[in-house]
Write a structure and sequence with these properties.
Elements lengths: L1 H15 L2 H18 L8 H12 L4 H12 L7 E8 L5 E8 L2 H13 L4 E2 L9 E9 L4 H10 L6 E5 L2 E6 L4 H10 L7 E8 L7 H15 L4 E6 L6
Antiparallel strand pairs: 1-2, 1-3, 2-8, 4-6, 4-7, 5-6
């Protein structure tokens, strides 16, 4: 599963380079999660997941607090959660998750980003079956064996554990996201390099030359859209 982590790492590095954009996206996601239940992460699983992700992107506390306070208030602002699926060059597959207050606008913008960059938008279900929702937790300062021992002592089952780039990456079922984190926190680990609920491709494709450049341009166009929160794909970063 090592290559899977490369895709997440590349996406994170790209977003780290566009802090204002990622902060705005997190503000919207936190607001929506807080509105779906109690605005308290201890009783709202969706909110807790978003806040854990926000930590790994160093989202300022002021932005987090502002979004939660807005959710507590009388704001009538509402968003629809949408998922689009599509194809890029040479068998590449893409999933786009969005939060929008204008479904028609977002659908048109996503379709345009695909079409103008050598891709095309598919119907619901045309791509998602090739991906698996997965919890991914990354940490430093431990070996894979040490991490596995911590998880076994906490009676937490995971799919896989790898060592890569001086980090340990744990892949687990989505419903084990908090259990994995809590096991490590109880073992004295205070920070995580990644904490994501993501969609991992069951198999990867490798692009090169013009196809790779075109694909990257398409992904950039999708991620630049204001309503788009997450973009997942099956293209191996090649690292």
């Amino acid at each position: 599963m090592g290559r899977k982590w490369n895709n997440i790492k590349d996406k994170k590095a790209s977003k780290d380079a566009n802090t204002s954009r990622i902060y705005a996206k997190f503000g919207r996601e936190i607001y929506v999660a807080a509105r779906q239940g109690e605005p308290d992460p201890e009783s709202n699983r969706a909110l807790k997941v978003v806040l854990e992700r926000a930590k790994t992107y160093s989202v300022p506390k002021a932005i987090i607090d502002r979004a939660i306070e807005k959710a507590k208030g009388n704001s009538e602002e509402s968003y629809d959660e949408l998922r689009y699926e599509g194809f890029g060059p040479n068998g590449s597959m893409v999933i786009v998750d969005a939060l929008t207050n204008n479904v028609n606008r977002t659908a048109a913008e996503v379709r345009s980003a695909f079409n103008k960059n050598g891709g095309n938008m598919g119907v619901s279900g045309s791509v998602a079956y090739m991906f698996t929702e997965t919890a991914v937790i990354g940490l430093e300062g431990k070996t894979a064996d040490e991490a596995l021992e911590i998880l076994m002592e906490a009676d937490v089952e995971v799919r896989d554990i790898i060592e890569e780039d001086e980090a340990v990456i744990v892949y687990a079922e989505p419903d084990q996201f908090h259990a994995v984190q809590e096991a490590f926190i109880n073992a004295g680990i205070a920070e995580f390099t990644v904490a994501e609920l993501t969609m991992l491709a069951q198999s990867d494709v490798t692009l090169s030359g013009d196809a790779q450049a075109q694909f990257e341009k398409m992904i950039d166009a999708l991620e630049d859209l204001e309503d788009v929160q997450q973009v997942y794909h099956n293209v191996d970063s090649g690292e």
